[in-house]
From TrEMBL:
Alphabetized NCBIfam families for the sequence: asp_carb_tr, PRK00856.1
InterPro entries assigned to the protein according to its UniProt record, in alphabetical order: Asp/Orn_carbamoyltranf_P-bd, Asp/Orn_carbamoylTrfase, Asp/Orn_carbamoylTrfase_sf, Asp_carbamoyltransf, Asp_carbamoyltransf_Asp/Orn-bd
Assembly behavior: Heterododecamer (2C3:3R2) of six catalytic PyrB chains organized as two trimers (C3), and six regulatory PyrI chains organized as three dimers (R2).
Domain Aspartate/ornithine carbamoyltransferase Asp/Orn-binding: from-to ranges: 153-300
Broad enzyme group: transferase
Name of the gene encoding the protein in the UniProt record: pyrB
Pathway: Pyrimidine metabolism; UMP biosynthesis via de novo pathway; (S)-dihydroorotate from bicarbonate: step 2/3
Protein name, as recorded: Aspartate carbamoyltransferase
Its job: Catalyzes the condensation of carbamoyl phosphate and aspartate to form carbamoyl aspartate and inorganic phosphate, the committed step in the de novo pyrimidine nucleotide biosynthesis pathway.
């Protein structure tokens, strides 16, 4: 496989392979304190982030360096993109520099796929609009499997703005491939009615908790993607769907795990006390992001397929 663009097209065997390889990397780098392996020696990784990122960007960089690759951070703010250069021109220029991997985040759904068709480099989708965030889904599944080695039949409740969330799309698709039951909870305007019939939909918090989830997965409220007329106030959102101190007490009593992809809006999705909750897996998710991204880089084969059809790029 040359690229990782989505979860939908991944086979179960490929997912298992990536999760197993991540376990192996975690064992080497955590238990045996290995600092570096030569897997990607002589290879170059280009980080092309048109949208801001802390976790994905830094963990890809750490992952690539642990595999001995050279990393170039493309500085969008000081590039010719500010002079109107298109994504196509940018990628053609970077292709001429013979990069082996391009890790791309962009606000436009499908853009990593267009880049992948233009270049022999392995392209990894680091989040494209409200479409997909495949490495987030993989690290989420890995984190859940650390707690539930056989996650079949376990229940994950995804809470919040499902409609605009690439994390909800990728993570729910992947968890279902692993036999996990998934439900959505959020305001009616932000929980899409279309999509897999296998996913339960709730708009009421207590009804969703009565479904008996094992994991409550909170999504970041993405104000940058909201049509404000359909969104309750942040205070109202916290009251209806946030993990308040009272709800945390019930979650603790039920022994549920809490996850969040970050960045967290404290006081909106969750109260401060969640960060100290003994079953919060939020830090585990960040830590596991490194080994998942190592496994993905190690797995892909740059130059594995020739560029296909001429893509149609819009202006960036
Ligand atoms: N979860 C996630 O994608 O975080 P960043 O935006 O910080 O990369």
């Amino acid at each position: 496989r040359k690229d990782l663009l989505d979860i939908a097209s991944l086979h179960r065997e490929e997912i298992e392979l990536l999760l197993d390889q991540s376990t192996s990397f975690k064992e080497q780098f955590t238990t045996r304190s290995v600092n570096k392996v030569p897997a990607l020696e002589g290879k170059s990784v280009l980080m092309l982030f048109y949208e801001d990122s802390t976790r994905t960007h830094s963990s890809f960089e750490v992952a690539a360096k642990r595999l001995s690759a050279d990393v170039t951070n493309f500085d969008i703010a000081h590039s010719s993109i500010t002079k109107g250069e298109s994504v196509r021109e940018t990628v053609e220029t970077l292709q001429a520099m013979r990069t082996d991997y391009i890790v791309v985040r962009h606000g436009r759904a499908g853009l990593p796929g267009l880049i992948a068709r233009q270049t022999t480099a392995a392209v990894i989708n680091a989040g494209d609009g409200a479409h997909e965030h495949p490495t987030q889904a993989l690290l989420d599944a890995f984190t859940i499997k650390e707690k539930f080695p056989d996650p079949t039949g376990k229940k994950v409740l995804i809470v919040g703005d499902i409609l605009h969330s690439r994390v909800a799309r990728s993570t729910s698709t992947l968890l279902q491939k692993l036999g996990v039951e998934v439900a959505y909870l959020g305001p009616g305007s932000l929980v899409p009615k279309h999509g897999p019939a296998t996913i339960r939909r709730f708009t009421d918090y207590q009804a969703a908790l009565a479904w008996s989830p094992d994991v409550v997965y909170l999504l970041r409220v993405q104000m940058e993607r909201q049509d404000v007329q359909f969104f309750p106030s942040l205070r109202e959102y916290h009251r209806l769907y946030g993990i308040t101190n009272d709800r945390l007490a019930e979650i603790r009593q039920r022994g549920l795990y809490i996850m969040h992809p970050g960045p967290v809006n404290r006081g909106v999705e969750l109260c401060d006390a969640v960060m100290d909750y003994e079953r919060s897996l939020i830090t585990n998710q960040v830590e596991n992001g490194i080994v998942i991204r190592m496994a993905v880089l190690d797995w892909l084969t740059p130059g594995g397929e020739a560029p296909r059809a001429e893509p149609t790029f819009g202006r960036s």
